[in-house]
């Protein structure tokens, strides 16, 4: 035993199309890997461009700039004497591929295109790239002239295709993200063909409770096949609704030896481990492995690699007591509540610093949703303070720009106090009407105080009344609330005026509050707070305060948000959050009378938990109304009768269908939930749907009828 090699993988906070920023972060990761003695470094999928370029992958410029950055990386003095695996898009024979490029000291050994593209859910790789269908097949790729010129000996071409890299000491195989998730992952064939190191370069996004799936696949890959698995991922918001959630990992024979963070504000996080090649060989000693290995009919094409020293480790093979293999450690997971506290908070930070706005503005209602959004901003301020205390220079520089005037007065200022920082960048606003209660107003104020936000408390009745008066003057008609005898359209219209005016006022205040405060930092981003269940049911006013610039909770269910608030109450020491948890959710858009208080769940005809169930059935299970009814028939009887279940199913699909048009203008939200109804990227549906689903409804009614007939005859039999 004792054939030790140090290897590195990383989490990089890349930004789509930020070529120079991405280049610098790649170089920084290589620098750190080398400082830690690594002789091999892998990085995230498409790291030169950023994973989320979407249709920019159709542009020739993207490919040209990728080669330009690549040339600067491999000629950089800090990027020598280390085997590099870098991700970028490449055009081969006029066809676009998602590739890994393997090089050492200005020599490119292999370009390995992705074989199995990600094309479901949030992913559309088939739209830009072609999969390399020819397994174990390679061709010559003529390199661009500008690359030939900087390469050692003016290398003209390189092997392109599905090959492995064989060195003097060991052998490498390359897997790209989705390939790990397929039934016949490349690492299986590669392991049987003698590959000991597998890399997986990913652009994989956060979804609540999803990490476990990915981690299990990585661990199981080498538990079964033996070997060293290096997982790299992007981490951060690279310009879209997704948050890539890092978790770079090194696993040896099924044991985790190194794990990077899932969330964080460090743009570059390198994870290294010193692994023992002999342990891989011992692990594979079972005869069954050997038998399958010898049965492989066609080997992978082999590309030979030799480093300057002749040994991958760059070390003498003599025993060296200073080189110690990294010990196994347990996998770390966050609870879903921690995931909500961290993921959307990091996403908000990336968004804010990258769009160069002056901060955030939120209409704060005293209800649980805008409270949750505000607590996520608080969590962001805590992360900024923590990173600043740890000396994160990028975070300090970004926070200083946002601090504006404070820094003019004190250039050495560092954001170590979350409340002080919140007061600079976070603006909350209660917009009361005659329908608002003292309780919601007081809760909003108390929360703002605990977070430290700049809080505005105002009444908007004069504006609401002005609009009502205008309508009455023009039409001669005076709409009334339902509780005052008005019809349904009158009742809705009066609610929607309040809701929509709040949106107009939000944008006015977001633009001008920094000016009022003499802060030179520019306008504020308006935050939205509609949760995933409200969106699904359409329980929101189109173009009201649910229409904002971005929404950190738009992909999170009410049930999870409540659990998050309970967690934050204790973890962030905010007892005020208890009042939000115990309050009845209400829109406060209708007058409160002795016998009537508007309540969300009564208004919607569903509990929030029921909406989560329907959300999963529709999107995750891919059920239409009939299948949803059959599933719930089995799950909910005898608690509910089939007739009651039929009513709920029809009602859900009815409201889903009539409100689907609202999803076309849903505020861009952090993607967090498998059943998100986001129309723009994730849940593609028509928005003019026949809401009664007449044929499915007939079939449901038949089942109900046959159940009732059977029940009746059973009762009859009992009586007889
Ligand atoms: N098929 C279709 N394609 C495209 N657009 C369509 C459409 N059908 C209606 N529309 C448009 O949509 C409009 C109806 O939608 P909308 O104006 O939103 O109005 P609507 O959905 O009728 O009312 C809003 C609902 O949200 C509830 N709510 C609950 C909690 C909070 C808040 C809040 O705002 O704070 C609201 C409120 O109680 C009410 O039930 C129509 O007037 C029409 O302009
Ligand atoms: N009185 C108010 N003051 C400020 N903003 C408000 C007020 N009422 C509603 N809003 C804004 O409109 C959004 C939608 O209102 P709604 O009553 O549906 O809230 P909600 O979705 O139940 O959320 P919350 O739990 O925050 O009340 C809120 O999230 C909030 O941003
Ligand atoms: N970029 C990819 O191939 C990602 C696909 C993969 N299913 C994931 O969610 O991680």
From TrEMBL:
Q: What is its EC number?
A: 6.3.5.1
The GO cellular component terms are: cytoplasm
What InterPro entries does the record tag this protein with?
Answer: C-N_Hydrolase (IPR003010), C-N_Hydrolase_sf (IPR036526), Gln-dep_NAD_synthase (IPR014445), NAD/GMP_synthase (IPR022310), NAD_synthase (IPR003694), Rossmann-like_a/b/a_fold (IPR014729)
Catalytic reaction list: deamido-NAD(+) + L-glutamine + ATP + H2O = L-glutamate + AMP + diphosphate + NAD(+) + H(+)
Gene Ontology BP term (one): 'de novo' NAD+ biosynthetic process from L-tryptophan
Q: Please name the pathway.
A: Cofactor biosynthesis; NAD(+) biosynthesis; NAD(+) from deamido-NAD(+) (L-Gln route): step 1/1
Q: Which UniProt keywords apply?
A: ATP-binding, Ligase, NAD, Nucleotide-binding
Which SUPFAM superfamilies does the protein's record reference? Adenine nucleotide alpha hydrolases-like, Carbon-nitrogen hydrolase
Per the database record, which ranges form the CN hydrolase domain? 5-277
For this protein, the parts annotated as crossing the membrane are none
Q: Does the keyword Phosphoprotein apply?
A: no
MF GO annotations: ATP binding; glutaminase activity; NAD+ synthase (glutamine-hydrolyzing) activity
Task: Quote the Pfam families the UniProt record gives.
Answer: CN_hydrolase, NAD_synthase
Spell out the family assignment given in the record's similarity comment.
In the C-terminal section; belongs to the NAD synthetase family.
**HAMAP family, sorted:** NadE_glutamine_dep
Could you identify this protein by its name? Glutamine-dependent NAD(+) synthetase
Native source organism of the sequence: Sugiyamaella lignohabitans
Record gene name: QNS1
